[in-house]
Amino acid sequence: MTIELTALLIFVGVFALSTWRNAHLGVLMFAAAAGVGLGLAQMPLDDIVAGFPIDILVLLVGVTYFFGIAHADGTIDRILEAALAGVGHRRVLLPTVFFLLTAGIAAMGSPLGGLVMAPIGMGVAARRGIDPMLMALSIGTGLSAGGFAPTSLFGIVTYGTAQRAGVDLNPMVLFVVAVVINLLLLLAAHVLFGGRQLLRRTEVSTVEAPVPSEQPATVGSGASLGSGGSAVVSVPESRLPSSSPGLGAGGRRKPFAGGQVATVVAMAGLVGTVIALSLAGRDPDIGVLALAFGAGLTLLNPAAAKKALPHIDWSTVLLVGGIITFVGVLDHMGAIEMFGEYATHIGVPLLATLFICLVAGLVSAFASTTGMLAALVPLALPLVASGSIPGWALICAIGVCASIVDVSPFSTVGATLVATTVDEGQRPRMTRLLTRWGLTMVVVGPVLLVGTLVAPGMAL
Prior knowledge:
It holds the Pfam family MatC_N. By secondary structure, the chain is mostly helical. The protein has helices spanning 2-21, 25-39, 45-49, 54-72, 75-87, 94-106, 117-128, 132-147, 153-164, 171-192, 195-200, 258-279, 286-300, 302-308, 314-333, 335-344, 349-364, 369-379, 381-385, 391-403, 412-419, 427-459, and strands at residues 217-219, 231-233. The model is unreliable at 202-251 (pLDDT under 50).
């Protein structure tokens, strides 16, 4: 048991060292996995390397490449312009629209991509007299919801890790749970931060606050989506809202170009295929499907495809791969089973589940959400193996609990929302309120998810 406990302490220590030195967690984890596997577990190197998740690598590469083409050929910008123009001056709809837009972008491979809406949304909030806290939470909850789509990072890591461990988790179920929970949080944000007043106001604010343009916003050192380090979000003026976005000469809206129409069709085809296969009871390989649709777009627009190559998220591939490789070594040593035994010693499986979800939320508020998902999902499997906890419900609860705290200003998402608040005088208030919201979610998330998913599942 001493060896297993030592391996677990090294695992936790690598997380701490990565945060302290602002170093890439995945690289450190892979090196530590090799050291622990060879030195403590006496594993052959080939067996250690075999734990690297090739299936998740294909998922991440395929999805980020496909949606990288959509960014490169301007399709994403055109969709944003059309959506914002459709709202007009109906301010009460704006928070919901930004929730949907952010969720849509976050569903396209990387949740961090949804942060492109932060400078736009916070600028619109200043112009239209919307509480910046309401707009910030609209963007934050949209990012969390979209991130669990079958085509996005949180969803890929969560259900991919669960499936590798033999837990039957439908990716669409995970996505629906995330969307419903985040919509409830958005509703709460409306009630708390001025949404009801927007219903009663019909006049359009004439305040013309400056909207961020080409200057990047550099934000805090905690990374909730990647490997750590500061995040720089730079949004060109072409992505910012105006009185007539996407209009050509004479005030007419420009039609989608032929290549952009093909990209929209491919996006609809990818999503439709995933949904159809899931409803048919089959397990869609989203990475392979994304590469297949991406190959078609590559033939149609080779120039955009070349620009999409840098969009492939190799940093996250290393992050997830390193953590899962180390978890494989822990599993071989029996350390995961030992952790599960400690959790079950709490005595009540429901309390053990609540404890794991609390850990997921608390650590994720200050560190990597992706890392938490890759680490805690396997560590929770002994509870599933006991037969008292429904596996799909537990994995969904861990995933969503680790994500909804990301608006904490100590993470990349929250720090970006603070940094892009137009009124500098509001930023201390935003920091204070986002801290309270994020830490409240550390408790509210587990209670809500365990109470609505795990407890009813245990009763069935």
